[in-house]
């Protein structure tokens, strides 16, 4: 899945802001997600930094539905989740400490709990990151928000000692933008900045086909706080954002999470 996805809608930059609409899905009432991971089909995992989350069987139809609660057991012992990728055998989660955990895929069983275990690899820099793996050859790559862009790294061995080595750097188009989330899916790395703009680059075997990104800008106002995003199989960007709901009589303002297409 590291090869080119070949989606026509991703082949050209978007020169204007594109309208986005909230996905009609009901998340668990107490869930405040921070990270999205798009699965190999159309499933999506929305995770809080503490490892609680929700699993959506399909996010492409846009119809109303209820997300199933999930929990990544043992993740919090390694650190708060900063990025997640749907790998060949489950979720690959990068924590705030830079450690990488492999967790069971939410759809693998009827249980709402997915056990997590730390992978015996070096920690990544403590920045928004995502990792990707090749199931057939056992290789692993990482995409890390560094130096005003995204640094691609490969897990290599020097005298049988594993270490991360940078293989490419992908700069953003505009200065001063802050990357809030990095994800990888369908042969593309995607970075979301604080304005909600999503930059994505096509990859081949962990390397960029071109350093010129596609830029997808949402027309959704300035009240939203953008948190994460991932690419669906149809080439659309699914975004996670939060907004403050106005106070009502006797009720304090509340923070509401939204999934937007």
Written account of the structure:
- This protein has strands at 17-19, 25-26, 35-38, 44-47, 52-56, 65-66, 68-73, 81-87, 90-95, 100-103, 113-118, 129-133, 140-146, 149-158, 161-171, 179-185, 188-193, 198-204, 207-208, 214-219, 225-231, 237-245, 254-260.
- The strands form five sheets. It has an eight-stranded mixed beta sheet, with no helix packed on it. Strands 1, 16, 17, 18, 19 and 20 form a six-stranded mixed beta sheet that branches. Strands 12-13-14-15 form a four-stranded antiparallel beta sheet, with no helix packed on it.
- The protein contains no helices and 23 strands.
- A hairpin with a 2-residue loop joins strand 8 and strand 9 (90-95).
- The radius of gyration is 18 Å and the shape is globular.
- Mean pLDDT is 85; it is low at 1-14.
- The relative contact order is 0.19.
- Helix content is 0%, strand content 51%.
- The chain has 261 residues and is mainly β.
- The protein starts with 16 loop residues before the first strand and ends with a strand.
């Amino acid at each position: 899945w590291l090869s080119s996805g070949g989606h026509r809608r991703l082949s050209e930059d978007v020169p204007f802001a594109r309208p986005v609409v909230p996905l009609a899905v009901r998340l668990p009432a107490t869930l405040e997600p921070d990270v999205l991971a798009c699965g190999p089909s159309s499933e999506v995992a929305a995770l809080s930094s503490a490892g609680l989350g929700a699993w959506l069987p399909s996010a492409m139809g846009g119809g109303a539905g209820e997300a199933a609660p999930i929990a990544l057991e043992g993740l919090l012992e390694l650190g708060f989740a900063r990025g997640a990728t749907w790998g060949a055998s489950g979720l690959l989660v990068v924590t705030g400490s830079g450690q990488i955990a492999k967790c069971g895929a939410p759809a693998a069983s009827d249980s709402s709990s997915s056990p997590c275990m730390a992978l015996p690899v070096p920690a990544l820099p403590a920045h928004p990151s995502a990792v990707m793996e090749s199931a057939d050859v056992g290789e692993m790559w990482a995409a890390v928000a560094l130096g005003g862009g995204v640094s691609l790294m490969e897990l290599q061995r020097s005298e049988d000692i594993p270490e991360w080595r940078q293989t490419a750097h992908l700069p953003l188009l505009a200065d001063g933008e802050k990357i809030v989330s990095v994800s990888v899916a369908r042969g593309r790395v995607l970075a979301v900045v604080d304005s909600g703009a999503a930059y994505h680059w096509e990859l081949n075997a962990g390397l960029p086909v071109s350093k010129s990104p596609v830029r997808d800008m949402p027309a959704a106002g300035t009240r939203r706080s953008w948190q994460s995003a991932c690419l669906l199989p149809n080439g659309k960007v699914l975004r996670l954002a939060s907004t403050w709901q106005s106070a009502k009589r006797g009720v304090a303002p509340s923070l509401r999470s939204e999934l937007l297409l």
